[in-house]
Specification:
The complex is a heterodimer. Chain A is built from 3 helices and 2 strands; from the N terminus they run ααββα. In chain B, 56% of the residues are buried. Classes of the chains: A mainly alpha, B mainly alpha. Chains A and B meet through helix 1, strand 2 and helix 3 of A and helix 1, helix 6, helix 10, helix 11 and helix 16 of B.
Chain lengths: 88, 694
């Protein structure tokens, strides 16, 4: 089993998207949580924003993060020829 | 290859058809019972129907999926499509604590309870990005399998087995407890009988068909539990917000709750009742010493108040409320003890209501900061625990491909999200109902649900007239969290059949999680310990037979432990997360992302992470402190005021750091290990090694 440059590039791209999404996750979780009191002074859809994010907003962001990751990687597999065939 | 694919595709279509018919059938069943109720079927029979029909259904799926093949038994033949694996993971994940307890916790602790909502959803981001696709490519049967292959040797595997059993067992006890509570409440069976009826439901399924049966049952259970959770909330939402998707519109209700909180805080009658709440609670706490005397004192007081009220010509509703209180105060001491236990919960009412949406309240800046740190600490532990609990990670071994494993995490979180973004909404709607309808009503004319539930169990709902004005004040209500979900159908004014549906949903949540956990424990013993370490030459049939026998034993031991009713379920569940996070997360993730991580690093890291986590819990949690005879004050052991439940905050970084340092101090792993890491990183690799378990 010999890794080519293409393989290394695939793995590198995987690390980059993972890192980017982790930053988003960190902001939606810990930065949001830390400043929840301050965010509450803003009203969003009738909710105090800090409450809204913790009860719903951050959750939606998590779902979207996973959706983007799955799509991006499933596509990347094909581009770099490491995909498993065409099952859904 | 293409034959396999078209087979998978046909299987998917078949599944859609079956579960579509099943969902329709279940709805028809509920409608039929609703009609039967109108025609006079008793509540107890509705309870029995829901209990036995659903358990029978799970049993049928279990029997249909029976198997003795290893890959079928351990990983459902690796043919579970992403969408259905998502549903199964949802049911596996959402336990009795999520279904029944979550909305109640949010009702009682407002914003601060959201740490669980965030933690138990955000953890899936870690599962998706760091674990699921790689574990699927690895493709064996258990989490200790991966640790054993990646780090080599039986020591790592043994630590993995120990940690998997430790956290799964803590967790399964909480589930079986939930099963006992639900069956006994809705059918009137004894708690112990309820536990064993539920256990039968769990066993008939996992015992016969292992992961295969558990998977298809969990899909069925998810459908029931989500219908059961959403139905009453949608109804209550229409009542209070006017639209059937209350999750997006309850901001307005939250504002009304905030106004009511202010009004209640300033109301003179409320202040009067608040001033009396502490004394009433203290009196109730002292009552168990001599129940008969406390009961007599209570009756005497009520008689005196009645005489006073009559003498001073109080309005009729005041007199009637005292007469009712005399009438319903029990004479038998066991029941009276329950009433006093309920009254003891009034203690919290001495303070004005907390603002629901306010994060981290506290008396001064230091207390608020500590509350914030603990909020984030719980979020951290629940997230990393999610990404380390073996019964969840195991589910991603069952998809047909890496590709589907990734998509499957998306579906998992989506199905979990449906319940978790509803729970905070339910808490707010229920609170609005209590603050606006129950508070201010006359004792002689309580809302029907409140009048019924205060008789069912005083620890769930106690309403008592502290200032004898015949009107309910908020300070006179003590609510147990579990009632929020259990009573929602009645609060919303729905027929009893919906209450039965909610009970069936709670049961499905508890059973499905218990299934997954028992299987994890039995597999750790049967597969990892027996097959991999003791008898590597054992034939498949015997391996599966040993796993099945162990499953039975573990289930019985778990039920036996549960019959002692161990306290504080939420702490047990939280502890399982912190333990799992500290033991598994660092070794699993570095195992994939850092080729240099080696055996000694993993051994030291797992022991150090788990060790620091267990140490912190044992010196800061009252139960363990008593057990070990720790006497110095909790605060002197606490680091940064962290509570025991968040011990993983220390365990995870210590584990990561230890693996890093020890790995660098010891020789790099062999070439084969490097090849294994490359193997799991790429879905397909030319000249790849084969690691799939058979």
């Amino acid at each position: 089993m010999q890794l080519t440059d293409k393989h290394r590039e695939y793995w590198h791209k995987n690390l980059v998207i993972t890192a980017i999404l982790m930053v988003v996750w960190f902001i939606a979780t810990f930065v949001e949580g830390w400043y929840a009191r301050e965010l509450n002074s803003v009203t969003f859809l009738g909710f105090p924003l800090g409450f809204y994010m913790s009860a719903q907003g951050s959750l939606i962001i998590y779902v979207v993060i996973i959706f983007i990751y799955a799509r991006y990687m499933n596509n990347l597999d094909k581009v770099y020829g490491v995909h498993e065939g065409d099952d859904e | 290859m293409s034959a396999v694919m078209s087979e998978n595709r046909a299987f998917l279509l078949q599944l859609r058809k079956y579960y579509g018919i099943y969902t329709g059938g279940f709805i028809a069943f509920v409608i039929a019972l609703a009609i039967a109720e109108q025609m006079g079927m008793s509540r107890q029979w509705i309870g029995y129907w829901f209990l036995f029909a659903t358990i029978a259904l799970y049993a049928v799926i279990g029997i249909m999926s029976r198997t003795v093949d290893a890959a079928e038994y351990y990983v459902a033949g690796r043919r579970v499509p992403a969408f259905f694996n998502g549903m199964a993971t949802g049911a596996d994940w959402m336990s009795a604590a999520s279904f029944i307890g979550m909305a109640g916790t949010l009702y009682l602790s407002g914003f601060d309870g959201l740490s669980f909502v965030m933690g138990w959803t955000g953890g899936y981001v870690l599962v998706a990005l760091f674990l699921a696709p790689y574990l699927r490519k690895f493709g064996q049967f258990t989490i200790p399998d991966f640790l054993g292959a990646r780090y080599g040797g039986n020591i790592v595997r043994s630590i993995g087995i120990f940690a998997a059993i430790l956290c799964s067992f803590t967790y399964v006890v909480a589930q079986i407890y939930g099963v006992g509570i639900i069956t006994s409440r809705f059918t009137g069976l004894e708690f112990g009988v309820g536990v064993f009826v539920g256990l039968g439901g769990i066993l008939v399924c996992s015992f016969l068909g292992g992961m295969r049966a558990v998977t298809w049952t969990q899909v069925a259970q998810y459908i029931i539990l989500i219908i059961a959770y959403l139905t009453p909330v949608v109804w209550l939402g229409i009542k209070h917000t006017g639209i059937p998707v209350p999750q997006i519109a309850y901001g307005a209700v939250l504002q009304k709750v905030a106004q009511l909180e202010k009004k209640i805080t300033d109301d003179p009658k409320e202040k009067e009742s608040r001033a009396l709440a502490k004394a009433a609670a203290d009196e109730a706490k002292a009552a168990p010493k001599d129940i008969a005397k406390a009961t007599a004192a209570r009756k005497e007081l009520l008689d005196k108040k009645l005489a006073e009220a009559k003498a001073s010509n109080q309005p009729p509703h005041v007199i009637k409320s005292i007469e009712d209180a005399i009438g319903y105060w029990p004479s038998d001491t066991t029941k009276a003890a329950g009433f006093f236990a309920g009254r003891a919960n009034l203690a919290a009412n001495a303070a004005p209501p907390r603002a629901h949406a306010e994060p981290f309240p506290g008396k001064d800046e230091a207390a608020r900061d500590a509350a914030r740190r603990n909020f984030l600490g719980i979020v951290f532990c629940m997230m990393f625990g999610t990404a380390a609990l073996p019964h969840i990670l195991m589910r991603y071994y069952t998809t047909p491909s890496v590709r589907q494993a990734r998509t499957s995490v998306f579906w998992s979180l989506f199905f979990i999200f449906l319940l978790y973004f509803t729970a905070p909404c339910l808490a707010v709607l229920a609170k609005y109902d209590v603050y606006s309808n129950l508070v201010g009503s006359r004792y002689s004319d309580l809302p029907a649900w409140a009048a019924a539930w205060r008789l069912v169990d005083p620890t769930l709902l106690t309403i008592t007239d502290l200032n004898f004005d015949g009107i309910v004040q908020l300070a006179e209500i003590a609510i147990g969290g579990d009632i929020i979900v259990l009573a929602t159908p009645e609060i919303a004014g729905l027929p009893y059949v919906v209450s039965g549906l909610v009970a069936a949903g709670g049961l499905a949540a508890a059973l499905s999680t218990a299934d997954g956990l028992l299987l994890t424990i039995a597999n750790a013993l049967g597969h990892d310990l027996y097959y991999k370490m003791i008898a590597p030459t054992a034939p498949t049939a015997r391996r599966v037979a040993v796993s099945k026998a162990l499953l039975l034993i573990v289930a019985i031991v778990a039920a036996w432990v549960t019959s002692y009713k161990p306290g504080n379920i939420l702490f047990l569940v939280g502890a399982a997360f912190s333990l799992a996070a500290s033991a598994f997360f660092p070794a699993l993730v570095l195992g994939v992302f850092w080729k240099r991580a080696n055996k000694w690093g993993a051994i030291c890291g797992m022991v150090a992470g788990l060790g620091i986590c267990m140490y912190y819990m044992s010196v800061t949690y009252p139960f363990f402190r008593d057990l070990l005879g720790v006497t110095q004050p909790i605060a002197s052991y606490q680091w940064w005021n962290m509570n025991a439940i968040s011990a993983g905050v220390f365990g995870v970084p210590v584990g990561l750091l230890t693996i890093w340092i020890v790995s660098l101090l010891t020789p790099a792993p062999e070439r084969q290990v490097q090849e294994l890491v490359d193997h799991v990183r790429y879905p397909v690799l030319s000249g790849d090694i084969e690691t799939r378990g058979t």
